[in-house]
Structure formats: C-alpha cells, structure tokens
Amino acid sequence: MNWFDTAAYAADAGGAPENAALINILMLVGFIAIFYFLIFRPQNKRRKEHVSLMSSLEKGNEVVSAGGLVGEITKVEDDFVKLRVSDGVEFRMQKSSIVATLPKGTLKGLDS
C-alpha cells in the first residue's frame, strides 16, 4: 500500500431512492405547516385582537398609544379619538395607533 498515492476511486453511483418524490412532498407540507403555525396564525390572532380593541374604545377609557402617549379618551369618532393627556391638552389620534387600554384609575396613579 502506497501512503502517497493520490488516486481516488469513485464508488458506483446509486440511483435516486424510489420514494424520493414522496419525501420531497412530505418536506414541503412540513415547511408549509411550520410557516402557518409560527407566522400566519399568530399574526392573524394579533390582528383580530387589535380590531376588537379598536371597536371597543369608548369615552372614558384610559389608553396607551403606539408612540407611548398615555391618556383618557374624551371623544370617539369614526377613525379618530380625542385623547386628553393633561389638563387642557387634547390630541386627535387615529384609532389604529391605540395599542392597549389601561385599568381605570391608572392615570391618577401616574400623576402622584
């Protein structure tokens, strides 16, 4: 046996397995299932929760906006709400920028 022999001998090439198409289809179905359960389903759930939050906004709710403003709703319009953030200071904001409602009395706790 020659240790410095660089000749490589290739093995006979085997054909593709008979069930390769089935394995490929199963992997494709698996990837689709992963994308559905990890991306599409949670995103749809978040969207539905946000739509229900926007439809439940009413005068007197204490809310937080996407920009971090905290205030009390003084008027609800079609696509907008008026938000009182301080005495004599009101903003008109889109409903879609409201990300959460706060429990009643939270603003008074923040002031003190």
User: What is the number of independent domains?
Assistant: 2
Distance between the termini: 89 Å
- Report the mean per-residue pLDDT as an integer: 87
Largest sheet entry: 5 strands, antiparallel
Strand order of the largest sheet: 4-3-2-1-5
- Give the overall silhouette: elongated
Count of runs of 4 or more consecutive helical residues: 2
**What's the CATH architecture name of the largest domain?**
Roll
Task: Please provide the ordered H/E string of secondary-structure elements.
Answer: HEEEEEH
Q: Bin the helical content.
A: 25-40%
- Percent of residues in beta strands: 25-35%
Low-confidence stretches: none
What structural category arises from helix and sheet content? alpha+beta
Number of strands: 5
The CATH top-level class label of the largest domain: Mainly Beta
Task: Provide the CATH topology of the largest domain.
Answer: SH3 type barrels
* Radius of gyration using CA atoms only: 30 Å
Which key features would you list for this structure?
112 residues; alpha+beta; 2 domains; 5-stranded antiparallel beta sheet; 2 helices; 5 strands
Molecular structure report:
The protein is α+β, with helices and mostly antiparallel strands and 112 residues long. It folds into 2 domains: 19-55; 58-111, Roll (SH3 type barrels), CATH 2.30.30. It has helices at residues 20-55, 106-111; strands at 62-65, 70-76, 80-86, 89-94, 98-102. The longest helix is centred in the middle third of the chain and has 36 residues, at 20-55. The termini are far apart. The mean pLDDT is 87.
